[in-house]
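Internal tracking record. Fields below are filled automatically when a chain is submitted to the structure queue. Please do not edit lines marked as system-generated. If the sequence contains nonstandard residues, flag them in the REMARKS field before resubmitting.
Queue: standard
Priority: normal
Entity type: single polypeptide chain
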Amino acid sequence: MENTSNLFGTYVYPEPQFVRGAGVLLFDAEGRDFLDFSSGIAVNSLGHAHPHLVNALKQQAENLWHTSNLFAVPGREVLADRLCQNSFADKVFFTNSGAEALECAIKTARHYHFDKGDVEKINILTFEGAFHGRTLATIAAGGNQQYLEGFGPKSQGFIQLPFGDMDAVDAAVDEFTAGILIEPIMGEGGIREHSSEFLRHLRQLCDEHDIVLIYDEVQTGIARTGKLFAYQWSGVEPDIMALAKGLGGGFPMGACLARETVAVSMVPGTHGSTFGGNPLAMAVANAVLDIVLEDGFLDHVGKMSGRLKQYLAEFLDSYPDLFEEIRGEGLLLGLKCKIPNSEIAVALREAGVLVVPAGDNVIRLLPPLIISEDELGETHQRMDRAFVLLAGK
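SYSTEM-GENERATED OUTPUT FOLLOWS
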């Protein structure tokens, strides 16, 4: 059948079409409810239509939408201060997306060396299986041939190394190495976690050779893993960190955080954004932090993570022909599948649970961080019904 849509054909949209969301639930036009374990790919950190976020957006929308970065925005300074107070960082640049946050991170790392006179120090070491965005630079950083094909020569200065290979990193470092870019836990790449030992080795290497360590926490940041940032599990701090997704709780935004020593080279004219740090995004992100920084919030994420892991362990025992491994931290969890993960995702959707396929034949489970024990129990029942049908085929 001919495609009559006026949209680019970059996506194939399955049924259903959602018309409303409330907390952990999405509803389609027929009124069916779905437990949303996709969260817009780890974006809806506080679920759908959270009243505190809705009120913050409404109040801001009634006052001021946009002024651009020609003028200061009060909420921008507030949000930057809160992010720096709760992380390693001293400076923040706000963007509209994770890919833009990574672009800013890459530019900041390179300009840091340029400012010191090391103009040829531009190479960024990255790791196979990573995903850093869809811009020309970030697809080059990710190195996935499927995403690179058809868009001309690959952007220069990105070198992919095997996952977790310390010897390969040591061998790759030279006088042209500007930075090392890594996801502490790969999301799109199959919920694969880099060891604390590996991250400590990278930090030591960067310190020894004046290399900028960049963390991509677009998916892992803002409490998704059970700590505010995933780097806090290892205690290995980066020099630059990219955030997005959960920071806006569903409103499009991102941020590039950096140490003063690295960010000092980014002076007027080196970077910019028309929409980045706009009043609407700042209002919503500050509202997200109001909730996430409350006492007990991270404890709740950890408790729900433990319960969900128990359920996944049950599935691993009950359906050995379907699953082989549990991966992840907090509420960024995955099941490595023995049959195509797309089949698992379809069966779960038909049972009223939405999940996200990932690389390495994994399904991601990314529920809103506010999920309750009762909602996890209902999810367990729906998933079990789907797996009974799959196992019986």
